[in-house]
Design brief:
Number of domains of chain A: 2
Radius of gyration of chain A: 24 Å
Oligomer: heterodimer
EC number (chain A): 7.6.2.2
CATH topology of the largest domain in chain A: Rossmann fold
Helix content of chain B: over 70%
Helix content of chain A: 25-40%
CATH class of the largest domain in chain A: Alpha Beta
Enzyme class (chain A): translocase
Distance between the termini of chain B: 36 Å
Structural class of chain B: mainly alpha
Protein name (chain A): ABC-type xenobiotic transporter
Number of helices of chain B: 10
Largest sheet of chain B: none
CATH architecture of the largest domain in chain A: 3-Layer(aba) Sandwich
Number of domains of chain B: 1
Structural class of chain A: alpha/beta
Number of helices of chain A: 11
Largest interface: A-B, 43 and 35 residues
Shape of chain B: elongated
Number of strands of chain A: 13
Subcellular location (chain A): Cell membrane
Membrane topology (chain A): Peripheral membrane protein
Chain lengths: 307, 255
Amino acid sequence: MRSEPVVHVHGLVKRYGTRTAVDGLDLTAAQGVTAVLGPNGAGKTTTIESCEGYRRPDAGTVRVLGLDPRRQARELRPRMGVMLQSGGVYSGARAEEMLRHVAGLHAHPLDVGALIERLGLGSCGRTAYRRLSGGQQQRLALAMAVVGRPELVFLDEPTAGLDPQARHATWDLVRELRADGVSVILTTHYMDEAEQLADDVAIIDAGRVIAHGSPDELCRGGAENTLRFTGRPGLDVASLLKALPTDSAADELVPGSYRVSGKVNPQLLATVTSWCAQHGVMPERISVERHTLEDVFLELTGRELRG
Amino acid sequence: MSAGTYTPMTGAAPLPRMIVSQAALETRMLLRNGEQLLLTVVIPTLLLVLFSSVDIVDTGAGRSVDFLAPGILALAVLSTAFTGQAIATGFERRYGVLKRLATSPLPRWGLMTAKTLSVLVTEVLQVVLLTVIALALGWSPHGNPAAVVLLLVLGTAACSGLGLLMAGTLKAEATLAAANLVFLLLLVGGGVLVPLDRFPDWAQTVLGLLPLSALADGLRDVLQHGAAVPWGDLGILAVWAVLGLGAAAAFFRWE
């Protein structure tokens, strides 16, 4: 399944006036689901729009399904589906009317009625776009992206502003697309979305990819993990530290609450528990914390992703 | 929907089908929009009926409807090809409709063709409606229908170019305001209701070069006075069409 890259971007540069939005970005996306993760203004949307053929790069090359999105737009467009970050629909168009229109631009579209039901838009099919709720507008835009039975779908922040139930419905659809062999490139600034959905994650900051890999690889690589336990206050942390491998750290955060950080593996866990046994300590509420993409981002950039 | 529902099966619809579908959608959007209908149907109809029945402006010798009907037809073209198209396209640009369609299988020239078709369909509806009303008011048109069609087509091209130029370069709100203002100013100074010979000589020369005056004057030459082909007015419209469409092609921004 993971053969030809669906998207290949090399040395992409895009400036708006004096502001450089994308600054020499390299990105290769294999088949499956790729999440482009980064804070607002990192260059996610510009990168996606360059792939869609909407933006003309100032430098670099972009290939989507092996095609140049600007010179070979005619061949590429029927093979991709696009969900913009917002809008894209006539304010006076009814939801079903717009979806039928987009379906009609393709040779073998999905059954519009079934797709409307699948996305829970059945009750508002005759409602004008401007009167739909934000969540309904998002779902309509998602439906427009998939109705042409594309090989590759670009979703720009597909769940921004959705309530948890609607987010999960969107996630389910992305999983179904993936299962049916549709590749998905999605941008997000939600860590959990990337972790839940993506085979691969590219973290973008200031117009460049600063890390790329599967969520597991990203969380394992580089970032240190943490083991916490509680016990009676005032344990001899220095003695615990001596028992641990040299690159570890241990401290008592608040009386009775201990943190061990370093390469957390079964060996380390055994070392900690046997040290506790030797010292007559019952470690309660013992927990291993895996690093999240949030931590990875913080470590790479020294900043929080959101805020 | 079951497994395999989304299995890719790609391909664009045939171009003519895409263009017709796009034109039909745009026409429905226009006919569904209250403000647009006010501009394209209600105002021209009211002006025609009111000014034909009540002697408000001295329209020269002959029945006033014979003077007014050609001007109102010119105004109908302006309202659809310029004002209506500018406002609609300005908001499509603002709401990302143009951007979304730019990534669809419909090529950009296909979208512009569809817009043109939509404008033409709307104009046909306007012309039929206004002609029926004018005839009911006692209008007796003369002249060569081919010359009338040529004038309407060139007038549409001139108005479309200028409307798209405005929609593609200004903010949607600015387009809304400016397009309505231009409509109002041309209504007064474009030879539709007030004959241009009521203005001072220097103003006549300038106003006569405006696309709406050229269209109204040409239509009147043919329909009221039975002239063959008003080449001067057609020339003015052609220059506006080339300038407007050329500038729109060069400066139009899709978002």
